[in-house]
Design brief:
The chain is mostly helical and 193 residues long. It is built from seven helices and no strands. The protein has one domain. 76% of the residues lie in helices and 0% in strands.
């Protein structure tokens, strides 16, 4: 699929919906505080896009779960990640559905309840992302064992710099670049980069 397998496709599509749903909540709170209809409309459009994209990410994640190599610890984390993703997307889907059914006739209590649900959804996004990060960074989810073994041997071999490419030269070069391109406002105390 577009040159991706399911784990890579899941990784490619999971960030944008999360960002859109975060922005949805921000637009919604801003619309509530400012009473601006344009912000309310922006909240609804980003909610639409976030929910659609979020379900694409969930489906890709469900497919990825079936094809990546994993042990028991990773499996438990994947189950938690999956449950959190489904609950989170369920929350945002309910918010979208309610807004669509009620259109612009939402009462104050309904708007407050939906806003609180959106905030609960944001907590779900952060928690889901945290578990997803543990899967990738702590357990190397999606990386085949053969690839990990090759990388581990490569890391054990270490890295040698070429002649003239010492760490000190790299820092000196970086400092000279910083000095030539980086400027400070008048009165900024002296410091090193």
């Amino acid at each position: 699929m577009f040159g991706y397998d399911w784990p890579r496709f899941h990784a490619a599509v999971n960030d944008l919906p999360a960002a859109l749903l975060l922005v949805t909540a921000l637009f919604d709170v801003a619309a509530w505080l400012t009473k601006r209809e344009s912000l309310r409309a922006a909240a609804l459009w980003t909610l639409w896009a976030g929910v659609i994209g979020g379900w694409v990410a969930v489906v890709a994640g469900l497919q990825a779960e079936d094809v990546i190599e994993h042990g028991e610890a990773m499996h438990d984390l994947m189950e938690t990640h999956e449950t959190l993703a489904l609950v989170t997307m369920g929350i945002f889907t309910v918010v979208l559905g309610w807004k669509l059914v009620r259109r612009a006739r939402l009462g104050g209590v309904e708007e407050t309840a939906l806003r609180l649900l959106s905030i609960a959804g944001l907590v779900g996004i952060v928690w889901t992302a945290r578990i997803g990060g543990k899967l990738v960074f702590d357990h190397a989810a999606g990386i085949p064992a053969a690839t990990m073994q090759t990388e581990m041997r490569d890391r054990e071999a270490g890295h040698q710099h070429h002649p003239g490419e010492t760490e000190e030269n790299e820092h000196a070069h970086a400092d000279s670049l910083a000095d030539s391109t980086h400027r400070h406002a008048p009165g900024t105390p002296a410091h090193k980069h």
